[in-house]
Amino acid sequence: MTRTVRGARVLITGAAGGMGRMYAERAVAEHAASVTLWDRDAAALARTVDELGAVSRGRTRIQSFVVDVGDLGAIAKTAQRVRREVGNPDVLINNAGIVRGNRNFWNTDNGDDTRTTMQVNALAPMYIAREFLPGMISNAYRAARIVNIASAAGTLANPRMAVYAASKAALIGWSDSLRLELEQSDHGNVKVTTVTPSYIATGMFAGARGPVLAPVLDPGYVVDRVWRAMLEGRPLLELPRSVRFSRALRGLLPTRVFDRVVGDGFGVYRSMDRFTGRR
């Protein structure tokens, strides 16, 4: 699986629109055997299935499942249906995510925002991967891929998004640990890619401002880079490159100096001041 996903079974969460749909379009264009779409928006999911089906013209099987990945109990039930009706995926893209921002942590809604954000962004990818990993591992002669879409916020603290940052930090820690466990257990056919992008112009972070050296990213550019990293089995993709630079400075500079130079000087700590998110 170094060039395309042709002949592979692909499963994408948060696939009814935005970048999830773009990953699905890429899989259909490369003639994947099947593309399985998970999303909680039934109407948008149905439209996406119809439109992808018209493009694929029967070359790729398009299957959809209405599921809210924040409902952790629904994940096992839906995964069981996928294995029975489609087969275990060869490629899993954990794309679904939510953000609640522009509020200080103590002003969040009685813990509901915290619980939901952690379930969707951190726990759901773990639960989903756990459902499909045994099948990926057992098929040792077929390349398999897991892509976990995290965020640069998980590598660098930022005001007004404390819970989101915590959820993505948890995702990053688990994702890279999973990669190492697979490599050390001689399950090299399954490769894990962790993605840590800065803000992307999908509407999810509407109103957020890109800091110095980290402009808001074009979704098409991100999808292309993620897709290539996934096919190559690259362990980590940081977008843009300044994310890696900021992470290095965080390790080198004293905390207060970093706050002044990068947080305030580069505008990182003010980037969520005008955040509105999707209406």
UniProtKB/TrEMBL annotation:
Keywords: Oxidoreductase. Pfam families: adh_short. InterPro entries: NAD(P)-bd_dom_sf, Sc_DH/Rdtase_CS, SDR_fam. SUPFAM superfamilies: NAD(P)-binding Rossmann-fold domains (SSF51735). The keyword Thylakoid does not apply. CDD domains: 17beta-HSDXI-like_SDR_c. It comes from the Bacteria. GO terms for molecular function: oxidoreductase activity, acting on the CH-OH group of donors, NAD or NADP as acceptor. Belongs to the short-chain dehydrogenases/reductases (SDR) family. This is Short-subunit dehydrogenase. It comes from Agromyces hippuratus. The lineage of its organism: Bacteria, Bacillati, Actinomycetota, Actinomycetes, Micrococcales.
